[in-house]
Amino acid sequence: MRGEPAKRCGRDVAAAAPGTLPPPEMNPLDPVAIDRAQSRAAAQYDQHAPLQRDVGARLLERLEYLRAPPARVLDLGGGTGRDAAELRRRFPRADVILLDRSLPMLRRARARLGWWRPLRRVCADAAALPLADASMDLVVSNLLLPWVADVPAVLGECRRVLRPGGMLLISTCGPGTLAELRAAWAAADPGPHVHRFAPLAALGDALLAAGFRDPVAEVDNWTLTYPDVRALLRDLRASGSTNAEPARRRALTSRAQLAALESAYESQRRDNVLPATFEVITAQAFGPDPGQPRRSRDGTDLAAIPLDSLRGSRIRR
After folding, report:
1. What is the C-alpha separation between 145 and 279, in angstroms, rounded?
2. Strand runs (DSSP E) across 265-311, as ranges?
3. Fewer beta carbons within 10 angstroms: which end of the chain, N or C?
4. Is 283 in contact with 228 (CB distance < 8 Å)?
5. Could you tell me the pLDDT band of residue 245, with boundaries at 50, 70 and 90?
6. Rounded Cα gap, residues 8 and 154, in angstroms
7. d(Cα 232, Cα 50) in Å, to the nearest integer?
8. Which domains does the chain have, with CATH numbers?
9. Highest-confidence range of 36-40, 110-114, 172-176, 309-313, by mean pLDDT?
10. How many angstroms separate the Cα of 200 from the Cα of each of 3, 20, 105, 171, 176?
């Protein structure tokens, strides 16, 4: 039995006050482990990712804020292409690009998207986008950031490729995610079994530091229910959502550890099911006007001067 999202308790919040750019260790993760998990999960991802599906659908509802249909759209970290297919349906005249680090995921997307009017699929790192400056009208990223080691770098790239006034739509996981599993593992074994997730304040700081305009975020608690712990672990593993803490144990989970985990998690059972909470943060922001500065790692403002403003000028030697 796979869980379904339960009651949402959300609230609109303004992004955090401006500050220095959060460090790359905002998500201290092992990128090699993430790549391996995503590649292994590609074949069965869609059957085991109900949260990604439903959060993506809710995220795309925010497209009503667009003033005009976008001409160029980037689905960043779009995996098997579910959201990209919906973006193409909503904007049939737009040039939609699906970008992901995992080649197996993009191969699965080809089967979903079909041969008629195929989308451009790009295998690349979200922290080094092979796209021109100010080339996108809309950038959408659904639950990619929880699996990114350098979130500020990714947001900086999103800002670079987004045209002035273009929209950024993102979702990520907050620190309350998998709280029940984290508590059960803490009682069963002292090692790190659930990696950490950045809070809303860190995301707000990163958006402002990257130079985005008018960032607004919403926090929702989603609850999936499972008949037992093994069903939850199966969904996490099959969707590539496994522990990527650098300090994690590399050995397989023993029967004794799994039994201790199951025993500890049973204290959370309600109405004959086990809950798994996901703190989901969704945010929207807009590309800044030309010339608006962004902050470097040490908090220094970096000017961005449009080339158009230099036309007609002369350099004297």
Report:
1. 13
2. 274-286, 294-295, 301-302
3. C
4. no
5. low
6. 28
7. 12
8. 11-290 (3.40.50.150)
9. 172-176
10. 25, 15, 28, 11, 11
Length of the chain: 317
Residue 273 DSSP label: B
Query: Quick check: 274 and 227 in contact, CB under 8 A?
Result: yes
Residue predicted with more confidence, 123 or 188 = 123
Pairing of strands 95-100, 72-76: parallel
- Contact, 125 vs 99, CB < 8 A? no
Paired with 275 in beta bridges are: 225
- Which uninterrupted H or E stretch holds 216? strand 213-226
DSSP helix/strand/coil, 312? coil
126 near 77, Cβ under 8 Å? Answer: yes
pLDDT digits (tens, 9 = 90+) for 40-61: 878 888 888 899 999 999 999 9
| Percentage of residues in the chain having pLDDT higher than 90 | 55
Q: How far apart are CA 128 and CA 250, in angstroms?
A: 29
Amino acid in position 245: E
Q: Which of 294 and 196 is assigned the larger pLDDT?
A: 196
Yes or no: say if 62 and 87 are a contact pair by the CB < 8 Å rule: no
> What is the identity of the amino acid at 150?
D
CA distance 40 to 239: 9
Pairing of β 294-295 and β 301-302:
antiparallel
